[in-house]
Amino acid sequence: MTTRGSASTAMTDVASDYTSGSAVHHSPKRAFRHWPGRFTSKNKLSNKTTKEKGKCKMPTSFSYWRVYCGLLLCAALSTGANLQNSGLQLLQTIPVPNWTLGKASTDLFGFNPVTRIMYLADRTNHAITVIDTHTNSVVGQMPLAPTTVVNQPLIAIDLQQLVVSDGVNSVLVWDLRTPLGTAPTIYPVPNVPDGMDYDTINQTVYVVNDNAPYNLTGISLTKNMIVSQTPIPFSADLIKFNPRDGKIYIAMEDADHNNASAGIAVFDPATNTMSAPAMYKVGSICPGHGIDIDPISNVAVMGCFQGTSNGNLGVDLATGKFIQFTDVGGTDSIVFNPNLRRFYSGSGLNTATTSGCPATLSGPPFGSLVPVVGVFDAQHPTKSAPARIDGVACTGRGNHIAGVDPITGDVYVPVSQFPADPTSNTTGIAGILLFHDTTRPAQDSGGGSATMLSGGGAASGTVRTRSDGGRRTLLTATITGVAGTSASLTVPTTVANELVHCTVTPNSASATCNDFLLGDPLIGSIMTLAVDQTAVARGTICGGKGNSCHADSGSGDDD
After folding, report:
1. pLDDT digits 0-9 by tens, 304-342
2. CB-side exposure of 43: number of CA atoms within 13 Å?
């Protein structure tokens, strides 16, 4: 398995190296509001897929049992058969050019829900590999400089910009609306830029670097400049923007001190301040790598990259209490599907054998591993257990990444050998495993919601959404007390954190918002009003059958 951020070679003639080459650009289109009612079954090693129409089947239920381990609550499932009952069905293996058995080195995925394109950091090809999720096939590659150890592609959905951390000393930004072959804008970020996320409130991408001195760098995509650089006390890996409070949550590894201060640090873009050494310090049990957040329950799942105890963590971000999942560890990435409200972990260094999945051939430096995708959720958190494990899917050697299409419920897992074989490294195939999650959407609001916005200032208003009778959700609002020249709404939906731009009328200090969303608002999450890219008001998203949280929630229809 290839770990991230080990390059130190300087780039030369970087501008000419980073042209988009054979990148595929598509005209923006609206994505489906609900994922299709179908499921697909497929033989694991066949390229022939059979589809059956009808509703997706719910996974067979299984019981959970919990045991206390000192101060930690460690969650485990009783048998390997139950663990594999996660709701994930393997559909096919997607071939990738130039990948051969045992030679497929990758890092993170980035998904564009407007075009339904998945971007993969493909280190084998020194490129961004482009996958069309309509057909689940590779349709192109964006070549990078041969010195890159590419880490993460990220999509700023509202701007249709592709942001890439090159794993050397640059962050590259392509405008996907420009003609094919247009060179990217290049921002210098030294010391191996790695994990990134996009703050929709100030339209800024934040990126951490792997090598000391450690910083969190802010790149404004609307101002086209680096706007902040904040020291981080210890090494970090991946980060996540939390729409509930507008802060950046950072998975801390602290590799320089035997993971003593590992945990989750928090950066507030409104004040440019960082918690130190970590707001939620867990220490050596979990060197933080991957992280993602359920914006309804405000629970994060953090991937633990080895550590003194195998097992990912579920962390209540309001209290800091956490649960450890000893059945799944050795994790690099975590990705959240807001439509199903499930987390998926790329756990290629997992050592737990409770899943019953096949192990790899034992060898240095990690010995025998049991690679899996772990499946978790935080839909029903309790004081003692903020999240739970739903099961696993068996994967293969080289798996440390997972990507998700929340519209279809498909999960993508790159591997260099599938299936894992405890006796040989020369059996099986390399490619991207495609799973379909057969669980049903976590909410069925019909698109209707109402959100009362308020804050410490004068800005306020009610935001309503409703279905247009088809597959689109319309958002409308009139905001008063707007003291600025621009206004926008950050709306967590079943597809992504979406950004809606509003029209400001300075004479009346008001703004009107009217646009279609890609998904449905997440009932119970938080919507944020920003004026001049600063949060000024927030409100709980209410509505939907059984989810009303105030009398005005209604159906979300206009009065």
Report:
1. 998 677 799 999 999 999 999 999 999 999 999 999 999
2. 4
Annotated domain spans of the chain:
43-109+286-442, 152-285, 449-542
Helix or strand (DSSP H, E) at 51 = strand 49-53
What distance in Å separates the CA atoms of residue 281 and residue 73, rounded to the nearest whole number? 16
- The answer to whether residue 498 scores a pLDDT higher than 90 is yes
The Cα–Cα gap between 314 and 342 comes to: 12
3-state SS assignment for residue 251: strand
* Statement: 449-542 belongs to CATH 3.50.50.60: no
| CA–CA–CA angle 210, 212, 218 (5° rounding) | 65
pLDDT digits (tens, 9 = 90+) for 206-257: 999 999 999 999 999 999 999 999 999 899 999 999 999 999 999 999 999 9
Which residues, listed in sequence order, are joined to residue 313 by a DSSP beta bridge?
302, 324
Sheet (strand 152-156) strand order: 152-156, 161-165, 170-175, 185-188
**pTM for this predicted structure:** 0.86
CB 330 within 8 A of CB 309: no
Structure tokens at 61: 């239920």
What are the structure tokens assigned to 116, written together? 């339904």
Residue in the block written with tokens 């030679």: 103
Tens of pLDDT along 109-146? 999 999 999 999 999 999 999 999 999 999 999 999 99
Cα–Cα distance for residue pair 552/462, rounded to 1 Å:
9
152-285 has CATH 2.130.10.10 classification: yes
Q: What Cα–Cα distance (Å) separates residue 445 from each residue in 38, 152, 337, 378, 422? A: 20, 33, 17, 19, 47
Single-letter code of the amino acid located at 229: Q
Q: Count the residues in the chain.
A: 559
Reading the block at residue 343, the tokens are 């987390």
